[in-house]
Design goal:
six-stranded mixed sheet, about 40% helix, alpha/beta
Length: about 400
């Protein structure tokens, strides 16, 4: 069975087509700069060999509809084709950041769509684009079953004393204000891979998984289930990120409204889009941060120190909650590829059982790498996440 996985951003469409009979990737790609004067589609076709055929085409995509139509075109026509008819695709899995009260994957229905609209305030950067992608895909693939897979789902095993906020209880019952978490699909995938590498059932593993990218979160996993995670009601909470501030004193909002002439919306925009690395040193890409540090930029160094301090803070907190852990896992764009962030994060944690192999850490890993030294009491892994494959598996289960 062929399953198409779609991840729509505000100006992008990421996609992968799987043959789930053998979990083979048939093609993958990215449509970017939707709504801008010039856009681009990058498409990779995977033949029987390990080497992909990559094509890049620049053209304008006025909306997500044109972007999705182009995806269908490249999958069906010419040298980039991997299917002969859209009917070959029987299931489409859609990544959705926030599911609200939905705690497991769902077949898309009008009721599901309506409920996702209602939780847009909980993920304003993500859910509107996800909904656009679902609606366009339903139009282009009317006979396929559409499934939504939520980033919040994996975290719903948190106990009530973890996910509840110390606010008046009726704030929870009336408005569902609580911790939901995010990146759950990624945390779930790398947790399962870590268990395989450890040679233990996931249900016997205690793990700390660090999804570090432009958006970042850390999860404490006890016996294979989420105990706690750093993101909260929305994906703004927790770690310092590319443009998001992460956890701050909530009184900052009222203080800025009363004293800086800012509205609540102004503060929300600032915390979401103008803070984090960008707010401290003017750039939000870690590659640029490292380049600025090399040029002697003290604000860039401060930004890196702030970021790694907060990651270390959560590792320590979750180690205390779990009692012991089998492995610490780094994943996502920064976690997988930035040896400096990993090294700076683990600095000073040797007494707690984390000993990094500096030479192995400096080598760019493949699918996974063990980067802890032989004497390390806790194994440290870099594991390449594969949210798309996890979404495809969840979609297949419902389609079947």
């Amino acid at each position: 069975m062929k399953i198409l996985v779609i991840n729509c951003g505000s100006s992008t469409i990421k996609y992968q087509l799987f043959n789930m009979d053998n979990q083979e990737v048939l093609c993958s790609g990215l449509v970017e700069k939707i709504g801008e004067p010039t856009g681009r589609i990058t498409h990779k076709k995977f033949p029987d060999t390990d080497k992909a055929t990559k094509t890049v085409e620049e053209m304008r995509f006025p909306s997500h509809a044109e972007g999705m139509r182009k995806v269908v075109d490249v999958m069906m026509n010419g040298d980039t084709a991997v299917i002969s008819d859209i009917s070959e695709i029987q299931g489409i899995g859609h990544r959705v950041v926030h599911g609200g009260s939905y705690f497991k994957p769902m077949i898309v229905t009008p009721e599901v769509i309506q409920n996702l609209r209602q939780v847009i305030p909980l993920a304003p950067l993500h859910n509107p684009a996800h909904l656009l992608g679902i609606e366009v895909a339903q139009e282009l693939f009317p006979n396929a079953k559409h499934v939504v897979v939520f980033d919040t789902a994996f975290h719903q095993t948190m106990p009530d004393y973890v996910y509840m906020y110390p606010l008046p209880y009726d704030i929870y019952t009336k408005y569902a204000v609580r911790k939901y978490g995010a990146h759950g699909t990624s945390h779930k995938y790398v947790a399962k891979r870590a268990a395989e590498l450890l040679g233990k059932p996931l249900t016997q593993c205690n793990l700390i998984t660090c999804h570090i990218g432009s958006g970042s979160s850390i999860t404490a996993i006890k016996e294979g289930r989420c105990l706690d995670t750093s993101m909260g009601l929305t994906p703004l909470d927790g770690l310092m990120m590319g443009t998001r501030c992460g956890s701050i004193d909530p009184a900052c909002v009222g203080f800025l409204v009363r004293n800086a002439g800012m509205s609540v919306d102004d503060v929300d925009t600032m915390m979401t889009k103008k803070s984090g690395l960008l707010g401290i040193c003017g750039v939000n890409d870690l590659r640029d941060v490292h380049a600025h540090i090399a040029d002697g930029d003290e604000k860039a160094k401060l930004a890196l120190n702030m970021m790694t301090y907060r990651i270390r803070h959560y590792i320590g907190a979750y180690l205390a909650q779990l009692g012991h852990i089998d492995a610490l896992v780094f994943t996502a764009g920064v976690g997988e590829n930035d040896e400096i962030v990993r090294r700076e994060t683990l600095k000073g944690l040797e007494p707690f059982g984390f000993v990094l192999d500096q030479k192995v850490n400096d080598i760019r890993p493949g699918e996974h790498a063990l980067i802890s030294a032989p004497e390390s009491k806790i194994k440290i892994y870099v594991i390449r996440t594969n949210e798309e494959l996890e979404i495809a598996k969840e979609t297949l289960a419902l389609v079947e």
